[in-house]
Design a protein that fits this description.
Elements (H helix, E strand, L loop, with lengths): L2 H20 L3 H25 L1
Length: about 50
């Protein structure tokens, strides 16, 4: 999976979390926000170590 696909997947998970938060599904949206944060940090750490 290349960087663009990872960014799109991360963005979709974030948008799903926002929609879930607005509809009152706080547990699901919290899990999605946490997963997007972890994925984003892992991707940025990998980019720093490869350069």
């Amino acid at each position: 999976m290349n960087d663009l696909q990872k960014d799109i997947l991360n963005g979709l998970a974030f948008l799903t979390g926002v929609i879930g938060f607005m509809s009152g599904e706080f547990i699901i949206s919290s899990a999605l926000f946490a997963s997007t944060t972890v994925i984003s940090n892992i991707n940025s750490n990998r980019k720093q170590h490869h350069d």
